Structure formats: structure tokens, C-alpha cells
From TrEMBL:
Family: Belongs to the FAD-dependent glycerol-3-phosphate dehydrogenase family.
Gene assigned in the entry: glpD_2
Designated name of the protein: Aerobic glycerol-3-phosphate dehydrogenase
Pfam family, one: DAO
Presence of the UniProt keyword Oxidoreductase in the record: yes
Annotated FAD dependent oxidoreductase domain residues: 17-336
GO terms classed as biological process: glycerol-3-phosphate catabolic process
Gene3D superfamilies named among the record's database cross-references: Alpha-glycerophosphate oxidase, cap domain, D-Amino Acid Oxidase, subunit A, domain 2, FAD/NAD(P)-binding domain
Coiled coil spans: none
UniProt key word Flavoprotein: yes
Amino acid sequence: MQLRSSNINKLTGEVFDVLIVGGGINGAAAAAALAGKGARVALVERGDFAGSTSMHSSNLVWGGIKYMESRDFALVRKLCKSRNHLIKSYPSTVQEIRFLTTISRGFRYHPRYLWAGSWLYWLIGNGFTRIPRFLTPSAIKQGESIVDVEEAIGGFEYSDAYLHDNDARFVFNFVRGALNYGGVAVNYVESLGGKREDGLWVTQLRDVMDGRTLEVRSRVMINAAGPWVDKHNALTGQQTDYHHVYSKGIHLIVPRLTDSQRVLAFFADDGRLFFVIPMGPRTCIGTTDTRVEKPEVGVTGEDIRFVLDNINKRLTLDRPLTTDDIISTRCGVRPLAVRANGGGDRDFLQLSRKHAIDINSEEAHLSIFGGKLTDCLNVGDEVVEAVRDMGVTIPHPGYRWYGEPPAEVRQEFMHQAALMGLDAMTAPEASEPLSTRLWRRYGTHALEMLEEIREDPRQAEVLIEGTEYLRCELRHAQRREMVTRLEDFLRRRSKIALVVHESAIRDSPGLREACAILFGDQAEARFEEYFAVSRGEEAVLPTTGE
């Protein structure tokens, strides 16, 4: 907790260039971009980083192929370029993956028409990925035996990308980047609203953990509160050109349905794309798309029936999936940006996830509406330009604030790992070598873990049964990842709570040691706090299906 405490103390000690409210993907990317380019930045998040929409995505980084149908080619072009840029910038984390799409008899388009569309999609994306291919029903069955092709008339395969770990981990690494660049970031600190005084924003904050209040001053305020952007703007008296409408989506995590590392895509009964997505030892299926009036949502029996009915109709499993197969759920809202003077009545199935940045130059206030993981680097760069236009000095405008460490650093890590025989320490049930996994998750910080393992080989032992997390990773999380509650680690810094049954987590002897490492003398309290709430219900609370 020392990292969090020291950052809270820094909030009141100076006038920041920018205060960012909200630690989802938009706020995290903005903080990393501004801090990396030399601005003095503070970020506060009332829950944990990536604690809402940004932790409930499909873990896909895609160019928006669904927007081809509405002929929004400019948006598709932008998203494809963003996807390509992420793949190049984060090759260990954002990786190309094949999508196999099956078209059933009676669908509104013939599969060859959609196949032609996938070629146009490929061309719009500069031919960056593997080429699409047309598939007959027999070819679909040969490639994926679990797909039911009885009603299929064909299909096609194309490429997009996915996050190898999880979305919340990806978001946190931007927060960690902002901290590395000298920024201040704190979770579980709520903004109570601010006002403009003598050319500065004076914002009242509340520490959610102990209730104390504090005040922070900044030249610019950025509202990146995700689904709650409108609510926070009401606290600061901001009138904007945009507002949010909400679409609820859910995913179900079930035992692994296929060993192939590809996404199976179908068109669900409501006409929307429906995915079967690999997630390590599990499979993620969904999503729904339900218009809701507020961002606080939960999974209903109807939601679960919709997902299970759709998956059971389209796969030939040994037995149909039932609620007993559900390991965990993901549920939240997609905040969709619409013009304040209209657009809210438009079919939300046709609304895109593109972001909109609303600027009040007179009061040095900026609101970020909409957005998605794919477009995060653009958000960061656009925010820097907007802040500079508001008069904030950007000392290092040409600095590249994102991406994995240089290849030379990776080579040095891999060399040291090979010399000490790190991969030989990989657990038999692990999905990949230790060197690959540690580098992807921690980059340059993985070198510190090598030193810990050299000094004490026990640091390479899996600590929590049924997971791949090592003792040294828990020590790293305690020092550098601002784990404040147990859920922060189990659900967001890792995806343990998504892929391991709650009963197995609770009964793991290693979890007690993990709590001791993370929380010290608060270990028992944090353990009891986590299990005081049903995990089945907790996972339901604050997916982007895209």
C-alpha cells in the first residue's frame, strides 16, 4: 500500500498541468501520453483502474469489420490503422488471430458477398494481416469440428487481433507507464467535482478507503469517467456537445470448447456478431446488446439464456452448455457517444464505438466520450494536442510514449533467462514458457524478477494453485501495481477470477500467502472482504462486446 499512500500525498503538494478523472482506457492512455511527453499529470479513479467497461471487453483489438455494412469506411480505415499500430507496438501482447465466420441459410447476405467484403476490409487495412479465404461448409467442419454446419451455406476466415492477457492488465500498463514517467495516479479516490478559481481547477477528492477528503489544483481538467462522464460533467457545470447512451453486453466464461487458437464468429438470433473466443484454459462466449438507461447493470437469467441458446444452436458439443458450466461472467455497458441535440433515438446496434473529445477551451476542460481499446493510442495523442492548445507546455512533443521496450532490452532479458535455465522452471501445466510470459506482462521489470529468482529459486514457484502466477509476481504486484483490494489482483492485474472457480480460489493454500505478500497485516481483512460478496454477483457488476 506504500505506492498508493505516497501518490495520495503527492496530490496536494503542487499545481498539476492536468487532472484526469477516470482510470479506464481513455484516462490511462491520456495519462501515459501526457506524462511521457513531459506534462505534470495526476489521475484519480474512484474504483480500481480499468474497473468498469475497460475490464469487460471481448479482449479483441479489431478494425471494426461490422461497420463495413453501414459503409462507414473512414472509421474502418482509422480503426484498422490503429489495430495495425498496436500489433507493431505491442507484439508480445496484441497479436493477430483468425476469425472463422459461419453463415447460415436465410441470412441477409450470401457468404460470397461477405467474403468479398472481407477482402475489402483487408485492403482498407493495408493488407497488414493474412489474407481472407472463402470456406465451404465441409471446409468449416474440417477446420472446426465443433461448428454445426447443418444449416450453413458457407463462411469465410479473416484476421484481426486480440489481447494475449486481459484487457484490464493492458489498461493498467498505461497507468504504470504514466507512473514511470513521473505522473501521479491513485485508485479508490473519488472526485466530488471541481470549480474554476483564478485560472485553476480546484477539485475536491475523497479517499474511498478511509473517507478523508483532499483538494487538488490543476490548470486543465480531463473528464475520462467512462459511462459516468455525463454525471461528472454535472458536478463541474459543463455543457457538452455530446452525451452517452448505453448498451449492455455480457460474456460467459466456460471450460475450453476448442483447442484451436481462433475466434469463431456467428450472427446471433438478433443479427449481431456473436463470438467464441479463446481465453487460455477457458472460452469466452457472447455478447448481448441491450439498450439500458444507466451504466449500473447486472446479468439476468434472460441474458444467460440468450448466450447459451445461441452457442448451443451453433456448435455440436458432446452435451449442450448449461448454467452449471459457467465459471464467471462479464457484464457492463458500452458508452456510445451521440450528439446532445439528437442521435439518442437511433438504433444503438448501428452506433459505433468511436470516441469524441469535447473541448471547453474557455474553462480548460475536456471530456472524452465513447472509445474502445483499439483506438487508445489515438486518444492519447489527441488529448496531448488539445491540452497543448489550452496553453499547457509540452516539453517533449516528439517522445514516443507507448510500445514495448526496445528489442535490445528484450534480447538481454531472454539471454539472461536462457543462461539461468528459466524456461526449465515452467510448470508442466503452463500454457507458455516462463520467459515469454514474464516479458509480455512486465517488460523491463521482468529483469528484476530474474534477479529475485537467482537469489531464491522459490520465487519461480506457482503460488496460487490452478494459475500461472509466481511468488515473485506477487511481490512485484505489491511493490508496483497498487493492489488495494484482493479483487484488484485476482480480477484485473490478473484474470484468475475469470478462469478459476471461486471455490478453487478460496481453497487454495497459496492464496493466504498471496494475501500476506500483498497486504501484510491487513491480509485476513482483505481475504474476508473479497469472499463476503458472491463472486458470481460481483463479476456481473460494472462488456464491451468490441
